[in-house]
Amino acid sequence: MRKALAPILFDDEKVTVELEEKSSVVAPFKRSKQARSKAATKKTSEKFPVHSFRTLMADLATIVKNKFHSNGLEAALTFEKITQPTPLQRKALDLLDVSLICTQ
What we know:
alpha+beta, two-stranded antiparallel ribbon, 5 helices
């Protein structure tokens, strides 16, 4: 999950490539230019705010399904509505390949 969300986390997206190419396991790890840029600007290349994994999960937790009940004069009406995701939440859901629409 962290790997899929790496573009919007402080995590370095190129870690696996760097580790595979590294000649020694004790040599110091160098962060990629992209990771240093995300850390310095606190923004992704798409201008989204960069998150830690925990803060991104907290942000995604604000997406909820609300159930509405209306007791009208003629009939009761009930329907459900899922919170509209923010652009950042939409990006996270896209990176995870997750849909808010239940297809069961």
